[in-house]
Amino acid sequence: MSGWRRLDRRTLGVTAVLLTGAAVSAGIPIAIGTRSLWLVPAAVLFIGGGVLADYVRWRQTRFRCTAERLEVEFRFVAHTRKSLPRERVRTVDLTAGPLHRAFGVAVLTIGTGQHEKVTLSPLARADAEALRTELLHRIPEPVAHDGPLATLDPRWIRYAPVSFVAPALGLSAFGALFKVADWFGAGGGLLTWLLNLFGELPLAVSVLLLLVLAIVIGVAGAAGLFVEMWWNHRLDREPGGTLRVRRGLFTTRSITIEERRLRGVELVEPLGARLAGAARVDAIATGMKRDDGKTEAKTLLPAAPRAIAREVAARVAGEPVTDVPLVPHPPAARGRRLRWALLTALAPVLILLGLGALLTDVLLVLGGVLAVVALPVAVLLALDAYRGLGHGSRGRYLVVRAGSVRRSTAVLARDGVLGWTVKQSVFQRRRGLATFTATTAAGSGAYSIRDADAAEGLAFAAAAVPGVLAAFASVPAEASRT
Amino acid sequence: MSDDGTVRLRPPRNALDRRAIAWWRWQWALVFAPAVFVLALLGLLIPPAAVWLLVPAAVLALSGAAWCAVLPRWWFGLHRWEVTETAVYVRSGFLWQEWRVAPLSRVQTVDTLRGPLQQRFGLATVTVTTASARGAVKLSGLDARVAADVAERLTERTDATPGDAT
Fold first, then answer.
1. Do residue B5 and residue A472 have CB atoms under 8 angstroms apart?
2. Which of A419, A428, A458 is the closest to B8 by Cβ?
3. Does B163 touch chain A (CB under 8 A)?
4. Cβ(B54)–Cβ(B36) below 8 Å
5. Could you tell me which CATH number the domain at A5-137 has?
């Protein structure tokens, strides 16, 4: 495999179908509005031009994979050549949308952890798979699987509707409906039709029923999205030190994370999933860009029963890191959380009451209702957030847990910690608390132990990452309690 | 520093250069002065609103003067720094006190910056970054020659130690 090669010729078919789809979907609203015939030649020109451009791209692009480098050349008018040392290759991802799959091709994306990225779009599926193996494993090894780390259990779909996606999807469904109705100038008519959908019921009941309908649509949508994203999910540990996630119903994706870039795992439990007893596992790895909009690229396991998520996290980390006993934080941390929660909840209530006293009684009632609902919720969230706080360490890892709406248990490799930042506000100082933040090159860049006991936290942080804080402790750091 | 709840980290050994006080004063003067100037000018140009503009201008000028007179001297005691054989260590802040440590073995880049005001006072800022997007350590308000020395020493040390945990 060292000669120059071409992309797959079937890209022309993919482009043609894609552009036809775009032309039709963009053309319909215009056609309805204008009813003019010039749309047809315009569409043909659009599709033909696109396919021609893609033909030139296919014809003039070639690539090769030598012993040291991956080279991609494009010669048309100008001559561009990308050359990537193979040892800098960090990720090789395969993506195949429904169209690609129909044509039997896949898109290969090669990342270096820096900003540059090489995309080979598309290759025949088997070729893409072979090139991926060649690029990542360097030395071809006989494939010796010790079974996948995790595979999707279809019953996990039940956790999809409890995410924040469901209500958003339900609302956007109505939004789309009104958008389409608007093309026909029937937005207002649609509203009356919807409100009369349930017969001669009072307005409030109709609105309530519509809301229920939106929720049902949202739940169905969330489940559908979950199936499309996570169907056939499996997480493998491959020879050569890589983790591979494969998933997708219509669009299939294959994401690879090198284990030497892995600095830990994060067990994430959003509130809804946590109440349902589920958790998701994310990788904490370097070189995963946060700004490319693919947050799910780092997810190793979707929302799954907590016991399974903990087991997967432990197997990825290579140590039983999820049953490390965590040191709880001092009760003063609970006080801080309660005060913050009450302040946040009281501010809008007080504003409503103040305005109500000046303007109208309706606002007083609204303020009262808000107080009755928001205050208990705030208190519960604060108490829950306090219960979640904890830190501990075992073996190669330190473990930090925090959060209520999004509870996160970050398991961070101690040798991946680049430094410590200690913060203490005047309020924390009065109560003997401090926040210890471990900075790292991976994941979000910083993981914080919030409101730990100032002395115990310092001893912990100094012991967890030797040679960073200990030299500056004014009292010799005692051995950590964990 | 035993039972009053502060973090038991000793203060870094070095204070900033004393000229940093003047530098901060000028920085804040340049924040306050334009606002005072605009208010005062408008107050003089629009006689009917003179009181409503000149009084705030005076208040702002007085509080700005007090701010510049008192606070920088206090900040000077709060900001401290140190570069040991193994790490860079800084402390800053009072309301939100902060201690930052970056081990030299993990340092990626050492930048020296001298803004126009800093040049005027012979000062410089050294920024030490690690591979973490959120772990930069900043030493601002050092004597320019000290800053150059520090930057050079840090660069030598970091060249000598491979591996930055990326």
1. no
2. A458
3. no
4. no
5. 2.30.29
DSSP for residue B48: G
A477: pLDDT confidence band, cut at 50, 70 and 90?
Answer: very low
Q: How near does any CA of chain B get to the CA of A425, in Å? A: 4
Q: Which residues contact A216 (CB under 8 A, 6 or more apart)?
A: A170
Sorted by where each begins, the domain ranges of chain A are 5-137, 141-288+298-323, 331-387
Interface of A with B in 74-113 (CB under 8 A): 113
Q: Is A141 on the interface with B (CB under 8 A)?
A: no
| Residue A99 · residue A14 · CB < 8 Å | yes
CATH number of B81-160: 2.30.29
- Taking Cα atoms as reference points, which of A477, A451, A454 lies closest to residue A466? A477
The beta-carbon neighbor of B7 closest among A434, A445, A467 is A434
In tens, the pLDDT along A355-364 reads 888 888 888 8
pTM of the model: 0.81
Q: ipTM score of the complex?
A: 0.86
What's the pLDDT tens digit per position in A163-180?
Answer: 777 778 888 888 888 887
Contact across the interface for B132 and A439, Cβ inside 8 Å = yes
